[in-house]
Amino acid sequence: MAPDHSVALDQLYSEVQRAPNEMIARTFSNKMWDFWLEAPDEPSQSMLDEALRAMRVGDYLRALDRLDSLVSYCPFYAEGYNQRAFLHFLRGDYAMVLPDIDQAIALNPRHTGALTGKALTLIELDRAVEAQLVLRDAVALNPWLSERFLITEPEGDDL
User: Fold this and answer.
1) Taking 60 as the threshold, does the pLDDT of residue 7 lie above it?
2) Which domain holds residue 94?
3) CA atoms within 13 A on the CB side of 96
4) CATH code for the domain in which residue 99 is found
5) Global confidence as pTM
6) 158 domain residue, yes or no
7) Are 79 and 103 in contact (CB under 8 A)?
């Protein structure tokens, strides 16, 4: 079972929404990532860490292997799906992003990284109206996300 950081994350969402500027908000966002990247146990943490190292050096095959293992081992851990979706995004395989990102969001609906990742993927897939809806959801959780600048004004009844 994934670690339950809901109380701490509730506090961080509250803090980030009250943050007076982007620099202060970033400290809260970084703490969220610390929680999201905490895997359920030592074997799953090792798989995640290996995958992240492989992605950093561009070894996408190794990263995919580790993330596939992680998702099989911990199907309830949102970050496994989120990181695999990010890997697909880096590879430009946008259609493969959506199933994983949707699973990450299903497991952790307030994961702003997954939400913005989905929005960016929808933009790449020329699905701008859907992307705007997801971006708005993400920015409602964290008004300081850098992707906030991608929000456009609604045109007619588009949104």
Assistant:
1) yes
2) 6-150
3) 12
4) 1.25.40.10
5) 0.91
6) no
7) no
